[in-house]
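User: Sequence in, structure out. Go.
Assistant: Echoing your sequence, followed by the structure tokens.
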Amino acid sequence: YPSFAWGPIVVSAFLFGLGKIPVVNEYFSKHEMTAFGWEAALKYTVFAIVSSYAFHGWCSVHADHSLKIQSGKLYPVSPQAMAVRSTAALMTEMIYTFMPLAPDSTSWV
């Protein structure tokens, strides 16, 4: 479903454009906020996809295949179909590339 990508593309473009507005850019600089970045977002997304495959593997072996969270929806519950859906959803996490984040906190207070 190519339309699945439009939401993340629009959000990414918005976040990228937001950082180009001088007053917003000044706020980000004042609070030491920088974009999460391509490499960090890619690592995060790959970790999430690998974890998803591990969970789906566990479900395939140990969970009752008649169980579904959305039991009223008709969609395939085969491991391959589940993996494709979750991987497509997790790929949208690449929007974090443009997400402005502040530095790590040094205190819990």
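User: And one key feature?
Assistant: The beta strands are 34-35, 100-101.
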